[in-house]
Amino acid sequence: MDYLSEGVSQAFRLISAMDREMLSAVGVSLRVSATAIALACVFGIPFGLFLGIRSFFGKSLVVTVLNTLMALPTVTVGLVVYALLSRRGALGVLGLLYTPKAMVIGEVILAFPIIAALSLSATQAVDPRARRTALALGASPVQASWTIMREARFGILASVMAGFGRVVAEVGCAMMLGGNIRGTTRTMTTAIALETGKGKFGLGIALGIVLLLIAFTVNLVTQVLRASARSS
């Protein structure tokens, strides 16, 4: 166990010294994840809101598929996007493979069903009379939808946090689409995998501690938002 205790000791030294390689991996992870979540919100929140307030043929099937996609394996997404972006793929001419943009594409696909499905749940939790009342008072359909979003805001924010927690800790897409290039596409998770494979535990443990702190913060904020939603 000496190697483990030595790795933990080295990890805390790296954290206290703000090691450059560690900060680089953390920065790439946060930038890619934040960009992916922002894009996933642009599509996921309106889609979840639409499913929550509209009725149409096949809606239950759409919701079932959406809930199923919440458990989509990261390596499956990585494989599909890799096939599209590789040199022989349909989008290979764009030259996006092994870039942060490719990682963002994969993580958007992972985050979208989570944000959409949880936004749907938050929307359905709102009293349906709120939209009917807004329309009866002369609000336009867009204004009425905005009223629903305001009522469901805590649940929607929780869905964003859940999506962020999903993508910041994933490794499959990041490894397959980013290539784990130092200083460019190396994230916390891929760096941990690399350092562990080389038998160097110090940096891996340091990044693991940072990742756990980020995950703890995300979950703490999510719990606070859910508590606020229940008390409001």
Notable characteristics:
232 residues; mainly alpha; MetI-like fold; 11 helices
Written description of the protein model:
With 232 residues, the protein is mostly helical. 78% of the residues lie in helices and 0% in strands. It is built from eleven helices and no strands. α1 (2-16) packs across α11, α2 (20-53) runs parallel beside α5 and α8 packs antiparallel against α11. The radius of gyration is 21 Å and the shape is globular.
Question: What is the top-level CATH class?
Answer: Mainly Alpha
Largest sheet: none
Number of domains: 1
Tell me, briefly, the overall form: globular
What would a concise description of this structure say?
This protein is mainly α.
Topology, element by element:
Blueprint: H1 2-16, H2 20-53, H3 59-69, H4 74-85, H5 100-124, H6 129-136, H7 141-151, H8 153-168, H9 172-178, H10 188-197, H11 201-231
